[in-house]
Write a structure and sequence with these properties.
Layout: E1 2-6, H1 10-21, E2 25-29, E3 46-48, H2 56-76, E4 81-83, E5 86-91, H3 96-106, E6 112-114, H4 116-122, E7 131-137, E8 141-143, H5 145-158, E9 162-164, E10 169-173, E11 178-181, E12 186-188, E13 191-194, H6 200-203, E14 212-222, H7 228-232, E15 236-239, E16 246-249, E17 252-253, E18 259-260, E19 262-265, H8 283-293, E20 304-315, E21 322-327, E22 330-334, H9 344-355, H10 361-368
Parallel strand pairs: 1-2, 1-13, 2-9, 5-15, 13-22
Antiparallel strand pairs: 3-8, 4-8, 5-7, 6-7, 10-11, 11-12, 14-19, 14-20, 15-16, 16-19, 17-18, 21-22
Helix pairs in contact: 1-5, 1-9, 2-9
Bound molecules: flavin-adenine dinucleotide.
């Protein structure tokens, strides 16, 4: 079965991986290079964690995601993941940690309650004041995103998946499963998937309400030298409720010598902007990220900003991913809302099954949106 996949981010590449495994003849159409540094999937790291506030469907999906990543590691013959554990915090007037704990308990995910002294005692680089809730999960960790996208690209090329780079899709005919590229050429197939991330609404304006491209700034920090070892052993940190907060990705050195940095960001959505437009983070955007973390990271003024980057979320208002039928032979996946990387392979497998008529669309769409069993 000939299948076209528009988009070479983690969703498109994972779908291509799963389709190829299932015997399809696959072509990936990517407007940039592969990996595309402007895509949402290409940064040093992305987190995988069970803590999900009240969204229990996604807690369950994380378990399935881990299994799917095992199949990816096996095919890639490398494991591009470091387990860090997860520290889940909420300040006063914020229920996210407590809601996460209820869902973790219901789904039997191991976690421990900490108090403010335990947090400050175990992690001297943190401030325990003003904590209403704190939990620790031994599970959760860092997916080395850029390396994963690069390795998947190499793997797909070796498996004779056609990877068209510098190929921008400008129109699709969903009923016919055909794609028109910017150079005027047309490609036809039996099945079509659009996985265009934050560019979705540019190609498919009808999906704009489900896919807002949101400008998000992340800041890489160099900690004071005496804290470097502590940060290399630290868990990821999530304080991402409605109130002021941030997430922190701890630095790691992998067994084969890959070094990744200490990164902080704000999961709350930013302003709408063109993902193909200006990317340089402004000083006020960097300052806002640092301000969100100052109450929790002791002596933050002693940390040096090593780098700041702009990336784009593809936002659905309730943060629920959307699988849409564009025609009898065409699907789109969008709205990954800043939390889709961890699910790339498991989404890819389910989308491939629907495209190949091996799974039912409605059930898949519910599961994708975090409402599944
Ligand atoms: C700052 C930040 C932090 C995040 N942290 C996490 C995290 O910790 N954990 C987590 O699970 N997720 C996280 N996410 C979300 C995650 O990265 C995204 O959900 C995921 O990468 C989306 O993948 P994608 O394939 O849908 O989109 P993308 O990676 O953006 O891929 C879409 C691709 O389609 C191509 N494309 C678009 N339009 C066209 C066209 N017309 N023709 C040809 N090609 C086209 C683009 O060039 C792009 O390469 C984060 C995102 C950001 C920005």
């Amino acid at each position: 079965m000939k299948t076209l996949v528009i988009g070479g981010g983690i969703v498109g590449l994972s779908a291509a991986w799963a389709l190829k495994r299932a015997g399809a003849d696959v072509t990936v159409i990517e407007q940039g290079p592969l990996p595309n540094p402007l895509g949402s999937s290409v940064d040093q790291h992305r987190l995988i964690r069970y803590a999900y506030g009240a969204q229990r469907g996604y807690v369950r999906m994380v378990r399935e995601a881990y299994h799917a990543w095992e199949r990816v590691w096996s095919d890639l013959r490398m494991r591009l993941y470091a387990e860090t554990g997860t520290l889940i915090l909420s300040g006063a007037n914020d229920a996210w940690a407590k809601q996460s704990c209820i869902a973790l308990a219901a789904e039997e995910v191991e976690h421990l309650a900490f108090d403010a002294e335990m947090v400050a005692g175990r992690y001297p680089m943190l401030i325990g004041d003003d904590l209403s809730d704190a939990y620790y999960c031994p599970s959760g960790g860092v997916l080395f995103a850029e390396a994963i996208v690069a390795a998947l690209t190499t793997h797909l090329r070796e498996r004779a998946v056609a990877l068209l780079t510098g190929a921008k899709a400008v129109a699709i005919d969903a009923a016919a499963a055909t794609v028109t590229l910017a150079d005027g050429s047309r490609l036809a197939a039996d099945r079509l998937l659009v996985a265009a991330g934050p560019w979705t609404a540019q190609l498919l304006p009808d999906l704009a309400p489900l896919s807002r491209s949101s400008r998000q700034v992340v800041v890489y920090l160099t900690p004071p030298a005496e804290l470097a070892a502590a940060w290399h052993a630290a868990p990821m940190l999530l304080e991402i409720g409605e109130a002021k907060g941030f997430y922190l990705v701890p630095p790691r050195i992998t067994r084969d010598g890959m070094r990744t940095g200490l990164k902080i960001g704000d999961h709350r959505f930013g302003p709408t902007a063109d993902p193909g437009g200006e990317r340089l983070p402004r000083q006020d955007e960097i300052d806002a990220i640092l301000a969100n973390a100052r109450h929790r990271i002791a002596g933050l003024e002693r940390y040096r900003v090593a780098q700041a980057k702009t990336c784009f979320y593809d936002v659905e208002a309730d943060e629920r991913f959307q699988l849409r039928r564009l025609g009898p032979r065409a699907l789109a996946l969008c709205g990954t809302s800043g939390h889709g990387f961890k699910f790339g392979p498991v989404l890819g497998e389910r989308i491939a099954a629907v495209l190949q008529d091996k799974a039912e669309f409605d059930a898949a769409a519910r599961w994708v949106a975090g409402h599944g069993a």
